[in-house]
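can u pls check wat happens w/ zinc ion
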Amino acid sequence: MSLVRLLGFTTLACGCVSGRYREVSTDREVTYIEEKGVDCVHSGHQRNQPVSANRVAHGFGGGIGRAS
Ligand SMILES: [Zn+2]
């Protein structure tokens, strides 16, 4: 179980909006794509996916996956 705290949002050059979070248990910073930019060409930028290659604990926010 991992608890994260929101640090802030940033709009990237590609148009994506990223959200920075701090994982409380590990005191590590994680960046997620909050909104995919319309003109973004980076396939690695996926909504609700971490941008960095860091290992990230599963279960963040409960909003990942589960396409109905
Ligand atoms: Zn992007």
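The chain has one domain: 1-57.
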